[in-house]
Specification:
By secondary structure, the chain is of the alpha/beta class. Among the domains are: 259 residues, NagB/RpiA/CoA transferase-like (Rossmann fold, 3-Layer(aba) Sandwich); 68 residues, no CATH class. Helix content is 52%, strand content 11%. The protein has a six-stranded parallel sheet with strand order 1-10-7-4-2-3, with helices on both faces. A hairpin with a 4-residue loop joins strand 5 and strand 6. Helix 9 packs parallel to helix 10 and helix 15 packs parallel to helix 19. The radius of gyration is 26 Å and the shape is globular. The N and C termini lie far apart (66 Å). Keywords: 4Fe-4S, Electron transport, Iron, Iron-sulfur, Metal-binding, Repeat, Transport. This is Iron-sulfur cluster-binding protein. It comes from Acidocella aquatica. InterPro entries: 4Fe4S_Fe-S-bd, 4Fe4S_Fe_S_CS, FTHF_cligase-like_sf, Helical_ferredxn, LUD_dom, LutB/LldF, LutB_C, NagB/RpiA_transferase-like.
Length: 475
């Protein structure tokens, strides 16, 4: 289950002590980074593509109203319907209205973080409609009653035995002697159950990686083919997505696809890249009778024109979290948010408020790796810094932190005093810790020494060393 935003520190402590989670992270976290680097090494023009992708998204965001209207008109022209939704509640209501009008009792779902964002599954269940997740990772999480811990690999936090345990608890007809040795065995077991669901579903719900304005097309990328079955077999196809997914043309989409798969999974392209435009036409042999797009804002338009506008470029590749040392240590559930990692640390405060999500922008080492791997060059550390500034301005940060910064600022504005004070502190601590070389406890440093020792300074301050070297060079 999704944990509390406010309990991030407790969640993180629990995650670090969770042996099963740590084993899953140790196995999985190097995988994405290595595959991404290998894919990029084979594409000399990758940096040029990153710049092109950034420019496409910046242009679209600058003219978002125009491209959204163009997209909606194209959807309507192709026989589909667009439902404009300001809030999560509006989006849920729109989906329910579509389902009731079509007599829907069961829906299959392709992977969609936006449906997670609006908590669609429990809402449908509460209204007598059964949702069935068809992505392999999402399916096992639905059996377990859990939320995704990663935006492209939802069951990132699980080990093979966790999957097997869930199948044995949920699949009553599973033989006791059935052995799951490989991923293929897990996939075969899930496929056998899901085929029945695909054929019985009245409606299919997918997300969208991109929305093409010129044609009214929705685009999804998958590696399992479940997205295609979800949107072609049922009578009704419902796309639940958000406004920043729109791009002007198919050519722009192809550019973005070239950086998406490489950044996400290290593939040149995903196994399936599917373009859907409207309902079934007279000459089509299959496809839905109805095509709906539920277009969600949920705070995104409020980001336009602010210091957080760059976040609207995000194409949900998860490269930032795949390379984040904090995410790699605690996994996704500890964040208490649908969107974890660096991108979640920026997006979640916008969706939930900095009052609730103030811990997330602070859960960063600011190493800058997230920005360096982002395929659309989002300055994630800078955006997290903006949230920290807002948290400080509103007096939401702990009093000790604010007072500590105030004291530091007082000294920092007086350079001579600052240098004298820091030099005295370094020399004093160095003298006191000269025998052990470390401190197990220090006043005002309890949060540090609670879990690790504080190293004793071994010499003078950086300022003093730098001044001495500059003086030596000038002589």
């Amino acid at each position: 289950m999704l944990q509390s935003l406010a309990a991030f520190k407790e969640n993180a402590t629990s995650a670090i002590g969770n042996a099963g989670l740590q084993r899953a992270l140790a196995r999985a976290k190097p995988h994405f980074a290595k595959k991404r680097q290998a894919a990029i090494d084979l594409l000399p023009e990758f940096e040029a593509l990153r710049e092109a992708a950034k420019n496409i998204k910046d242009h679209t965001i600058a003219h978002l109203d125009f491209y959204l209207e163009t997209y909606a008109a194209a959807v309507e022209a192709a026989g589909g319907t667009v439902h404009w939704c300001s809030t999560a509640q509006d989006a849920r209501a729109a989906v329910l209205k579509i389902c009731r009008a079509a007599g829907v009792r069961t829906v299959t779902k392709g992977k969609s973080m936006v449906t997670e964002e609006i908590a669609l599954n429990p809402f449908l269940e509460a209204n007598g409609i059964t949702p069935v997740e068809t992505d392999l990772g999402e399916y096992i999480l639905q059996l377990r009653g859990e939320t995704p811990s990663h935006i492209i690999a939802p069951a990132f936090h699980l080990n093979r035995e966790d999957w097997e345990e869930s199948f044995r608890k949920s699949h009553a007809d599973l033989p006791a002697d059935r052995v799951f040795r490989e991923r293929r065995d897990l996939l075969t077991e899930a496929r056998g159950k899901l085929r029945e669901k695909f054929l019985a579903a009245d409606a299919g719900i997918t997300g969208a990686n991109f929305l093409i304005a010129e044609s009214g097309t929705s685009v999804i990328v998958t590696n399992e083919g479940n997205g295609d079955l979800t949107q072609t077999l049922p009578r009704v196809h419902i796309v639940v997505t958000s406004i920043e997914k729109v791009v002007p043309t198919i050519e722009d989409t192809l550019t973005l696809l070239r950086v998406l798969a490489r950044s996400a999974t290290g593939q040149e392209m995903s196994v399936y890249t599917t373009f859907s435009t409207g309902p079934r036409r007279a000459a089509d042999t299959d496809g839905p009778q109805e095509y709906h797009v539920v277009l969600l804002d949920n705070g995104r338009s409020a980001m336009a024109g602010t210091e957080f506008q760059d976040m609207l470029r995000c194409i949900r590749c998860a490269a930032c979290m795949n390379h984040c040392p904090v995410y790699g240590a605690i996994g996704g559930h500890a964040y208490g948010s649908i969107y974890p990692g660096p991108m979640g640390a920026v997006l979640t405060p916008m969706l939930s408020g900095i009052e609730a999500a103030g811990n997330l922008p602070n859960a960063s080492t600011f190493c800058g790796k997230c920005e360096s791997v982002c395929p659309v060059k989002i300055p994630l550390p800078n955006l997290m810094r903006h949230w920290r500034e807002r948290e400080f301005e509103r007096h939401l940060s702990p009093p000790a932190q604010r007072y500590g910064l105030a004291i530091w600022a007082w000294f920092a504005k007086r350079p001579a005093l600052y240098r004298a004070a820091t030099r005295a502190a370094a020399l004093g601590l160095g003298f006191m810790g000269r025998k052990q070389g470390r401190f197990a406890w220090l006043p005002f440093a309890g949060a540090w020494t609670k879990t690790r020792d504080f190293p004793a300074p071994e010499g003078d301050t950086f300022f003093a060393h730098y001044a001495a070297r500059q003086k030596a060079r000038s002589q």
